[in-house]
Amino acid sequence: MAMRRFEVFRGTREAGALQEYGVECDEGMVVLDAMHRLQADQAPDMAVRWNCKAGKCGSCSAEINGSPRLMCMTRLSDYPEDRPITVTPMRAFPLVRDLVTDVSWNYEMSRRIPPFQPRAPDNPDGTWRMYQYEVERPQEFRKCIECFLCQDVCHVLRTHGKHAEFIGPAFLVRAAAYELHPLDMADRTGYLKDEGGIGYCNITKCCTEVCPEDIRITDNAIIPLKERVVDAHYDPIARLLGRLFAR
Amino acid sequence: MTAVLETRDHDVIVVGAGGAGLRAAIEARARGASVGLICKSLLGKAHTVMAEGGVAAALATVRPEDDWRTHFRDTMRGGKMHGSWRMAQIHTQEAPDRVRELEAWGALFDRTEDGRISQRPFGGHTHARLAHVGDRTGLEMIRVLQDRAIHSGVEVYMECTVIRLLVAAGRVTGALAYRRENGRFIVFRAHAVVLSTGGIGKGWQITSNSWEYTGDGHALAYWAGAELIDMEFVQFHPTGMVWPPSVRGILVTEGVRGEGGVLRNARGRRFMFDYVPDIYQGDYAETEEESDRWVTGDRTRNRRPPELLTRDDVARAITREIAEGRGSPHGGVFLDIASKRDPDYIKRKLPSMYHQFRELAGVDITTDAMEVGPTTHYVMGGVKVDAETQESTVPGLFAAGEVAGGLHGANRLGGNSLSDLLVFGRRAGLAAAEFARRQGAHAPVDQAECDAVVSGSLAGFGRVDGENPFALLAELQALMQRHAGIARDRSGLDAALTGLGALGRRAERASIPGAREYNPSWHTALDLRSLLVVTEACARAALERTESRGGHARTDYPNSDGALERMQVVIRRDGGAMTVRREPQPEIPPELMRIIREGV
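Structure tokens for the assembled complex are given below, as produced in the milestone run.
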């Protein structure tokens, strides 16, 4: 047992501040454990969102010492004992209270992506054949646990507040999962270019760095999507000639 | 006081948005019903997301000889002959279509070499039968269903908790709920209600379940006058994490054993060879060599490892090894896959286990053994439902998934939960939509009843020097862990009931500090009301069942009693008190009995 110091944001959209707490901590504890102990003993009305406590549901997203992380997968032992650990809500979304933000915008974006649309079945019994090598690429994107940490860190949303024009890395990953699905027939390039605002991404890779599922968001999802959009919407013949002469 | 309430009307409301709720909502919507889907958390965070190993269905892509009959036999035997034969039959016959349907909706299961859905072995299943996506099958499933639901016009109410079902003239007419974000109440008027709220695992200290799992659906049904069955049957999953303390109880998928992982005690012995029960004699490998040959691929001439016995048997074996002093340093046993599979294979087939142990325990499972022990995982019991329609004993009230009872009998097989959600979620949604179609106008809301429930639920605000809801919850969990866990006896269960009675009285004096907006102390106080009902039901049913069977083990009645095999303990509210009665189940038809006895 050791006493650790925390500075936790308490408050609402109107008023709030960091508050200092001391919490008795045991070996192996993660930040979420400390927040629960704090809740049980000192601050019963402190708002914290969580579910699985195993890094699988993506509910307990927050900023720990300023960097977007899952509280349930962040061990206290990774931080120096002599300094307080700061826990604040995600900044890219409106605050509800304390550590909880209103992430409903993400669900709205998710609804707008043109859905999966399979080709006709390969077999008379209504099934398809797909091979492991074909499914592995989209499977990477389907690891997404919708924690929205990539949305939180993305400067297009976080700093510039372009929520109306840009769906953010999480939903570019979702779109990539459909686009690279071996059976999918829909064309989402028009959607991505216009409503999706894919042009806003300037590939700084901050999203990739915070992904708790290690999805290579920029390299494997966004860049291939940008290429598809360019191929479909920006003069493919000139592009083809350019490619030929570059050889 | 008359509370001004937001009111929403739907043909069908579905309470709970895990696999069963989503599948029910999709089906009811497809039949033309207007559907409200109410979830306690954000969409896509329900417990289904944590399901790891796979979904059991006799697709016969890996073992062509598999079919529904073998799956049926495995399910009934795994449930220790106590389950509903008709539900087991429907489940095993319809599961393959439900899995193929997920693929048509976009699911990307791992593949066989010839491009079909791959299947992995699991405990109690004769053949490799679990369609899977690495060890994150539940995530794939919930995402596919979630997408399907939101694109089909289901209206979703997130972070909204139902605290009472509205009943008039003997049938359900809606529900009263509160929104977490602002603490305001909302009334749903509906012709039919589907409960799909999951289980009760938060009633125990060591659990794989999240904060949501407080038995809300069981309690709502009970308060509405519906019957609960089999509440004594709680599944303690054999393998939860045991170290460090903060992760105790987090699930370690059975897929580790399905992929060849072995259990050893502190002396290095593979103890499961010593625990093969009589009904499975001859079905499992008898030597390490035979078991190894099975793991490396020759599955027709070798039998499967005893680690793949059913969960009740494996959990009890582990408990005994630990009790007799052969446990690991932190009070578990060792689960080792590193010596059976190469690192690349482990990372590909069990990526989230690799990640979970690396991040939370500092253990590399590709080189070292895991320490594991039993953890509260699942309740086999639940709302008594009609096998065909999932309708409860209250007209218009349906239940599907973990909150419904019957399918799994005394013990659930791994993988049968995900297919249960799909098969019976669909059937519940279908029947609820049909039921709704036959109704006229919405019944008027009983304002006085709503006012009483609202003011009762707000009573803790402003009370000073009352009880701390978090402390009450911790005491309830410790009580159930101690007296109604993996080993039970009369005096312990009596003590549990006495303790629960006292906790119930203290819970009426809970103090809630702060405001109504997103106040977890208040939510915990309300959740406690459900937990007090379901834990009492569990303890009362466990007292009534004077034998050991499946997940229910009585140290004072260590053997199974054939006379109780098809006897069900039924719980019902009568005159404000919990009543318990025994009821025989329908006989298993001879042609199905032949399949169970003789195999296929």
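Residues 456-573 of chain B form a domain with the Methane Monooxygenase Hydroxylase; Chain G, domain 1 fold (CATH 1.20.58.100). The longest strand of chain B covers residues 185-195. Further analysis is deferred to the final report.
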